[in-house]
Amino acid sequence: MTALHEDAVRALTDWTPDGAGQDELRRDYLAHLAERPDGMWRACLPGHVTASALVVDPEGGRVLLTLHPKVGRWLQMGGHCEPGDDTLAAAALREAVEESGIADLALLATDGRTAPVKLDRHQVRCAGKDRPENTHLDVQYVALAPAGARELISEESLDLRWFGWDELPADTDRSVRELVARARTLL
What we know:
- It is globular, with a radius of gyration of 15 Å.
- The protein contains four helices and ten strands; from the N terminus they run ααββββαββββββα.
- It has a single domain (3-186), classed as Nucleoside Triphosphate Pyrophosphohydrolase (Alpha-Beta Complex).
- A hairpin with a 4-residue loop joins strand 1 (47-57) and strand 2 (62-67).
- The longest helix is centred in the N-terminal third of the chain and has 16 residues, at 20-35.
- Strands 1, 2, 3, 4, 5, 8, 9 and 10 form an eight-stranded mixed β-sheet that branches. Strands 6-7 form a two-stranded antiparallel sheet.
- The N and C termini lie far apart (35 Å).
- By secondary structure, it is of the alpha+beta class.
- Keywords: Hydrolase.
């Protein structure tokens, strides 16, 4: 087992989810990791753990979403864990910084501790359009942006855009809406 795998188990074990559905997902994620020493890596099929972060500007009352090139929808920043990631939280923060272009993001901490805020299990074709779908076991965090932060689009996005709490695009999926609502509640 890698240090990242051990950290993911610790983070999920220590996290107190909000509601029975989230607790069931947490238990499923932990079972996946118990069965799969490679469960953190993209090569683990048919599913693997991913890390994401919703970038929030609390003072501006807005969230930054990326128009994902493979999915074609507005999503939070996130993706696959990499060998250089020491912790699951570090993987989420790395993805948020890379995809937003905002270098001075900080993950939301509660009681002095960084912890996930939500889990989401979804199907995606991360291995290519001609390959079967994989299951992403996404562990979601909130990343705080400084007031007035300016995004910088990367090759991983078709577009980046700030949206007010109540001004998400009409076709925003349920999972992203729930993540935004959870972040708003926590802030």
